[in-house]
């Protein structure tokens, strides 16, 4: 499956110590919540230059440090011509499969049923078949 190198965790891009503590604690609280009604996916978005990447790298680093399962995918303006958005969910699916054997088996089953999922640019189909369906198992 397509994998975007350089889109994931970069610990040099973390928040400076003592900064953005409120939003970081909110996100960590969301991650550690056991409430079944809490959504399990966070989409961090906002205006350019507001620190989204630093927050994402800080949280991804924390998740990795505590042994959690997750994926970090960051977009970079100067690489838009690479159509990285078409490979976002294949990259995330591979990351999750590498960290969780149950997800890996469910993903392998989905790919065995439909090998075109490995390279389709259809992000809606990727989202459903490579992320949501395996997570539901």
UniProtKB/TrEMBL annotation:
Ranges annotated as spanning the membrane = none
Keywords assigned:
Repeat
Q: Domain Nephrocystin 3-like N-terminal, which positions?
A: 24-133
The keyword Iron is annotated on this UniProt entry? no
User: Which InterPro entries does this chain map to?
Assistant: NPHP3-like_N, P-loop_NTPase
Pfam families for this protein? NPHP3_N
Entries under SUPFAM superfamilies matching the protein: P-loop containing nucleoside triphosphate hydrolases
Q: What is this protein called?
A: Nephrocystin 3-like N-terminal domain-containing protein
Q: Top-down, what is the taxonomic lineage of the species of origin? A: Eukaryota, Fungi, Dikarya, Basidiomycota, Agaricomycotina
